[in-house]
Fold this sequence. Notes:
By secondary structure, the chain is α+β, with helices and mostly antiparallel strands. The chain folds into two domains: 192 residues, no CATH class; 181 residues, no CATH class. 55% of the residues lie in helices and 18% in strands. Strands 2-3-8-5-7-6 form a six-stranded mixed barrel, surrounded by four helices. Strands 11-12 form a two-stranded antiparallel sheet. The longest helix is centred in the first third of the chain and has 41 residues. It is elongated, with a radius of gyration of 31 Å.
Amino acid sequence: MYTLIKISWRNIWRNRTRTLVITIALVLGIMGGIFSAAIRLAAEEQQFEDTIENMISHVQIHHPEFLANPEAHYRIPDGQSIAAEIDNQGVAAAISARLVMDGMAASANMNTGVRIKGIQKDAEAKTTRLDNLLEEGTYFDEDWRLPSVIIGRQLAKDLMVETGSRIVLTFQDIDGEIVSSSFRVEALYRVTSRRFEERTVFVQDDILGDLVGEPDAVTEIAILLEDAELYRNTTEELRAKYPGLEIRHWADMEPTLHYSLEILDQVLIYLVGVIILGVSFGLLNTILMSILERVRELGVLLSIGMKRIKVFSMVVMETTMIAIIGGAVGLVLSFIMIRILNQHGVNIPGGEGLEDFGFAAVLYPELPTSFYFEIGGVVILFAILASIYPAWKAIRLAPAEAVRAE
């Protein structure tokens, strides 16, 4: 075996230029595939983090009629008590009991429909990290004559207002009566979803509760779980405990994102696999050319008694060695590349337009270590498959004819 390995190693370096060209092609193919996979994974994970952790949480609870009619009238009975009970169960990393309703926001220049969220500032900071999403202003710290409101950057542009400006929120109270109240813009927040920015405003729940006529009213309970993988089990348990309420997990609320994440691992392997498959044809061609150049040599080996299985193994070994060299270099360089890009980020051309779909303009790619091993396995597998035809051609040679070949 050692002799066979030694011969195979010498054979692949007989034509250094050809070997280096196919090795470099394999390295670049691996790097390109891994870069594409890392960008795709970064985009999906960024969207998951922004959508789930900053906007909707893992589980939400509502009155059964609230989804069709987001009004204060459809509040959760004893919502504060239910939120406290769930918090005491220990499954929630954070929980926010909100007073949410649809309404209108108006400035001196413009008016538009919005979703008004009355929140407890500390609970919301733990649940959606709203305090860390502020682009300017403070997090309900100002003591103004008018109550404070935090609005999205995009909504501020639409209303042509800034921090310190006055806006009017109009909505229905628990009896269905129209209520209007003035608020002072204390801060602007920024998320990747432009739709969320232009539609969602935050006020403190006690102020909003007084305006709707019930200080402790709750229309939405958002739950951020300790273990995100338990979202289905937790939802089923809550449905069994509170059968009169509408309880949904994030996959129900964002089915497209859920489907995308479910197939992501397979898609990434297939994506890199297709690129490596293309490079494998180049590897096949290289080995086949090497066989055709060594017909006489192989004929001599077969004539002096070298078994065909050893000739077959030698060709497979030569292909595998090239794949191991190119694969190892490609994976190491890819790992270094991803680490650098993770620190500095990748600017996506036209990224501002992607914000309409919930994607960030700058991505920070990162891949699990296991992914590199999986790709290494794919490279070796494709190399072995690519070597079968050249190896088969080699053992099919007739020794008498091969030794007379020019």
